[in-house]
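Record type: monomer structure entry
Structure origin: computed from sequence
Chain ID: A
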Amino acid sequence: MGVKQRAVGVRGLEMTAESEVHCWCGGVNLESLNLEYGSCSDCGTVIYRHAVDPAEHVAGHDTSFYGDRYWQHHVPRVLGLPGLEERARTDLAERAVVHLVKILRHLAPGGAPGGRVLELGCGSGSLTYLLRQAGFDAEGLEIGPAAIELARERFGLTVHSGPLESQDDSRPWEAIVAIDVLEHLPDPLATLTLCARRLVPGGRLFLQTPCYRQEGSDWPMLLPQEHLFLFTSDSIDRLLRAAGFTEVEIGPSLFPHDMWVTASIDSALVERADPLAGVPPLVVALVDAYSESNRTRGERDAIGADRDRKQQDVDRLQEELVAVRGDQLAKAELLRRQYNELETVRGDQAEKEQLIDRLSSELEMIRADQGAKKELIGRLGAELEATRQDQTAKQELIDRLGSDLEAVHADQAAKQELIERLGSELDRAREDQAAKQELIERLSVELDEVRADQQAKEAVILRLDQDLEATAAELQDIRGDRRYRLLERIGVRLGGRG
């Protein structure tokens, strides 16, 4: 069936899907339940009618549908369900115990076929941790970064990141567990087929998933973009056999809208005579405590129901008594008979009141036990808070050291910049010094030439001075000569004539 729809997902992001939406069985004819879901005409599976990108839908990053925002915003605020932290606390004493007991009915811890167990979509890791405490070699697989970090840090678990199809580890598992996972898968047949291939001979698959019983369009399990495939008991049996499982057992689970499914690829599903055999005492005590709490809750509900019935009887008798008194003048004989019946009822009421008193005493004992457990929970909560404060202090120290490190890096960068600038200035100074040295050398050469020329000129001047002195001496000698004086006189006279 071709589908072109526009829908607003749970993140508030508008998406458009235009593709062939079909059932895992290959069917394309859907009987409409509402704008978001249709029921496959071939197998009865309820299908989300808008196409999703399988790779993006189960991607392990924060922008994917099942990223950190799924647990931090969608689950608590949109669905109104407990978030990761609360689930990590409460599941250990509630859901995980119920699921563990169901698994122990088929698997014995510490040996075949109960050694290696993989939980798909382990969430906070409560069930995986409880399986390890029970003696199984259990590991988890999750795609949400926040859930992976919590399971690893809180419980010390080995948690693989990403969908099963992306895992490189090909070692077989004795059991694979998937609690509230199957309905979220874009291709449940492919994933379950891979599960069948990853199981050892005699291995088991344990599933919890919603069971559609023709509730119609108002069924609370119709969660658009989140629940992609919702199965009937018949269609999930058909799906598992198509994936390679030969034995399938379907029964009720913890909540009325869910079903518990156990499947095997090659052997009959036989329950163990004593599911708690070989389980460590601490886990047995936890199971017993849950059973006792559940039994007490059932007794308390039974007491409440009995009280309601008694109150109804009292109300009815009071109505009858009023009617009797109103008609007592006309029906005196009937009044006496009713009076006798009333006495009988009162006697029965006294017996029932004694029973109520005894049950009330038992209820007080239960409340006292609950108070002790609440006190223990409070003490553990205080220890947890102290641990968180220590973690916060360490984180603050890390942040402060990180700031100091950034300041050191900034100082180093400034000094490096100064070194580079001084290096550039030093290179320019060296170039200037080299130019000046070259000028000095040239001027030295010219100075030497000038000095040589000056010395030559001084030598010439000295020689001329000597010649001049010699000439002056000769002139003096000439002037002293008689002939010069005679010529001088002749010259004077000649000059006078002229």
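Annotation 1: The chain has eleven helices and 13 strands.
Annotation 2: The first helix runs from residue 54 to 57.
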